[in-house]
Amino acid sequence: VLNRRCVEAAVMTGLALNCHINKKSLFDRKHFFYADLPAGYQITQQRVPIAVNGSLSYSLCIDNKMSQMVTKTVRIKQIQLEQDSGKSLRDDIRSQTLVDLNRAGVGLMELVMEPDMCCGEEAAAAVRELQLILQTLGSSQAVMAEGQLRVDANVSVHHPGEPYGVRTEVKNINSIRFLAKAVDYEIQRQIEELGNGRTILNETRAFDSKLGCTVPMRDKEGKQDYRFMPEPNLPPLILYDAKSLPANMNYQQLINIDWIHERLPDLPTVKREKLVEQYGILPEHSFTLLNEDGLAEFFESVVKQTQMKPKKVIGWILNDLLSYLKQHSLTVKESPVSSFLLADLLNLLEKKEISSTAAKRVLAELWKGEGKTPLETVKEQKLELLQDQKELEQICQAVIDGQENE
């Protein structure tokens, strides 16, 4: 049975990626035998997928400098609906393979990109942008570590002006960081193979994150006959727009492309523009805020609770708090320093009750998660700035008198 929510999610994703939505798409059976595919076939969209000819714009830094960013575009060839397979789990201790069939048959959306990227950094940036879009749309939670978003990277090398070389496919990459490493390793491996007079095999490979390299899984030299045939249990999928909606039909049984388009939320690009416009921050800072899970919401929460200007708040979040998070491999949602605590700390700093150096010491104490407020930490460690001029003069005089005695 076709899942209506899967169709809506695919249409929404296609619209967000500037795709042409096919009002008529077809389902096919792809036959092959594997242990995690007990039916012996997979329902997919081989001939006419639900969406085609889109594009995804993404940005990346030049030479790791946030102030120097370039925007690139990768073409989207198609988006198709298909069945997910099961999952094979290798048990090396018992020398056996176990099969988890919990997700077999569940609806899956596959997005195919054109070969428009030239390094791991570009692939990682494009997939991160796609991940943000999927999360914004609600099409997927897209947590790679939990298998909600998986990437297959097809890599080939060639001299400029020459045809593409033989490609290899690195399957089921479950981390953006690993994606960048896998692509860069595979590019270098193929260059070295060709440089030594060897040929590249058309094969499927896996990325070993512990060794930092790709390893062979199976070859593709003998082209497999999948014996595609029209799926007999699913008729063509018909979608409508405002102009083609039939009269006297139950609209709950129809999917209106225009209705979905009107309800698209603000995509990451628009969110970045709004952050820059509303808070006066730099464009590169808006990328960091959105790219780190939950950081934009954290920033806006702090801004609402503090008297400090947003430009200063962003500096404390990106330069200080974020360094703690990365050091401990945490997201801002897991941070022991809440937006309320950081706002309290920044208010003390803005009122000139503490110095910037003292504020950094307080932040370090807050990170320990002992439940103290910034003000309690300031008083315990006597970090207040002196406001009483007479008291300050007495301290200065005492220092001078001490120097005279020496």
From TrEMBL:
Reactions performed catalytically: L-glutamyl-tRNA(Gln) + L-glutamine + ATP + H2O = L-glutaminyl-tRNA(Gln) + L-glutamate + ADP + phosphate + H(+)
Residues covered by the Asn/Gln amidotransferase domain: 297-406
Entry's Gene Ontology BP terms: glutaminyl-tRNAGln biosynthesis via transamidation; mitochondrial translation
A GO-annotated cellular component: mitochondrion
Keyword Lipid metabolism belongs to the record: no
Gene Ontology MF, one: glutaminyl-tRNA synthase (glutamine-hydrolyzing) activity
Keywords: ATP-binding, Ligase, Nucleotide-binding, Protein biosynthesis, Transferase
InterPro entries with a match to the protein in the record: Asn/Gln-tRNA_amidoTrfase_suB/E, Asn/Gln-tRNA_Trfase_suB/E_cat, Asn/Gln_amidotransferase, Asn/Gln_tRNA_amidoTrase-B-like, GatB, Gln_synth/guanido_kin_cat_dom
Similarity remark: Belongs to the GatB/GatE family. GatB subfamily.
Protein name: GATB amidotransferase
Organism: Toxostoma redivivum
